[in-house]
Amino acid sequence: MKVLVINCGSSSLKYQLIDSVSEEVLAKGLCERIGIDGRLTHKPTGKAEVAIEAAMPDQKAAVSLVLAHLTDAVCGVIADLSEIEAVGHRVVHGGEKFASSVILTEEVIAEIEKCNELAPLHNPANLIGINACKDLMPGVPMVGVFDTAFHQTMPKKAFLYGLPYEYYEKYAVRRYGFHGTSHSFVSKRVAEILGKDVKDLKTIVCHLGNGSSICAVDGGISVDTSMGFTPLEGLVMGTRSGDLDPAVLEYIAGKEGLDVKGVVNVLNKKSGVHGISGVSSDFRDLDTASKEGNERATAALDIFAYRVAKYVGSYAAAMNGVDVIAFTAGIGENDKGMRAKIVEYLGYLGITLDAEANDCRGKERVISTPDSKVIAMICPTNEELAICREAVALV
Ligand code: ADP
Question: Best exposed site among 60, 70, 189, 213 by fewest CB in 10 Å?
Fold first, then answer.
């Protein structure tokens, strides 16, 4: 079966066409600057990449262009649109309504719309992508895969905040968690690699990318995760502050003459390692700056590693033990220096880094020594493949 995986944002759209049997990517690409001017990068496997400027006034125009390229005589990979048997859509927020992926019927779409106010920057854009695909590929089953769904198994003690209970009842304020598709994929893959049943493993997944989160997975089930009501909570990220004393909001608002929205914008976009270092949100730039003696870049890297180590410790406590610590996403898969820095904190768990094994990028590999009591490993994530599998399972 050929499955089109769509991740539609407000101004960009990522896609992959995957053969679900071989799990090979037939083509992938990215539409950027939707609603501004429009740029498409289309990468068909085994053929030359195409990069064009083309008008994309809205998401429907972008999807239309993608479909035209997938079926193009030169850069296409299928003869006809009828070869696409399912479309898997990434949806950021499913609230408490969706604990698993679903076929996108009109009723389901109406329910997702109700979650829009929980993710105002993402969900409406996801829905526009869904509706565009429905219009352009009538009759093709569409599946919604939620970032939040995997975490719906968290117990109340993990998802409730120390706020008046009525805010949960009236406004649904609670921890939802994100990156669920990745945490689910990686925790299952870790068990496969180690030849264990996922039900027998306590795993801490460290998804360290531009946005970063950690998840405690006990027996295949998410029991806690570091992102919260929004992706702002938890780790210090590329540009997000992560955990913070909420009283800082009022104080900074007063000092800088900002309203709450203005401060939250700073916490989301101008903070994290970027804000601390004043250099960049990209760990390659931070590494270079740190090696050149930039003290703020060094501090940013130290703070990032320290926060990750603190979360790992708290989740080992929450699960009363841990068998595997898995590193994934841009930093987790590629940054051997950062992995080493984090693992250095974990000696008390009986983990020793195998420096030689750690000297790699993007490989499925154990990076702790054989005598370590807990396994540390790299496990690359693949959210598109996870979405493809969900779509196939439901269709
Ligand atoms: P997201 O999906 O959240 O945008 P990714 O998971 O793609 O992010 O991670 C992107 C980040 O990964 C980059 O900002 C960079 O900090 C880091 N990264 C990617 N490659 C490397 C590398 N070779 N060394 C160090 N860091 C890297």
Answer: 60
